[in-house]
Specification:
By secondary structure, the chain is an alpha/beta fold. It has five helices and five strands; from the N terminus they run βαβαβαβαβα. It has one domain: Rossmann fold (3-Layer(aba) Sandwich). 43% of the residues lie in helices and 23% in strands. The protein has a five-stranded parallel sheet with strand order 2-1-3-4-5, sandwiched between helices. Strand 1, helix 1 and strand 2 form a beta-alpha-beta unit. Helix 2 runs parallel beside helix 3 and helix 3 packs parallel to helix 4.
Length: 130
């Protein structure tokens, strides 16, 4: 079984740790890196070449909306999933316009994120990521 490479971007270290533990429990998921700012996310995508970026919307210096816009422009093959407690209204719309394939609430991440990543990859099974 091939692996889906995931980059986690959130300014809260604890959130990144929890999501890393959750995702690495699945045999077809590999968290290839973490970033705490939008700037770090952009450089990490270039360096680590993930398939999926899970991006917090609100972060210091460069928010997830601006970072998503830049990643989508530079790396159009990378899929971005927005993650925030502000997962509706303006923030969700702005994330989707910036290139995110979906926006989910952090509070629902443990229930929804694995399925969202599989959906964003475009495959029910990730064999095409070999």
């Amino acid at each position: 079984m091939a692996t889906i490479r995931v980059l986690l971007v959130d300014d809260e270290c604890l959130v990144r740790q929890v999501l890393t533990r959750m995702l690495t429990a699945y045999p077809n998921m590999e968290v290839v890196g973490e970033a705490a700012t939008g700037d770090e996310a952009i450089s990490s995508v270039e360096r680590l070449q993930p398939h999926i970026v899970v991006m917090d919307i609100r972060m210091p210096r460069m928010d997830g909306i601006a970072a998503s816009r830049e990643i989508t422009r530079k790396f159009p093959h990378v899929r971005i999933i927005g993650l925030s407690e502000y997962a509706d209204g303006y923030h969700a719309d702005a994330m989707e316009k910036a290139g995110a394939v979906g926006v989910y609430r952090k509070s629902n991440a443990t229930e929804e994120l694995y399925g969202a990543i599989k959906k964003a990859s475009g495959h029910d099974s990730p064999e095409s990521f070999a």
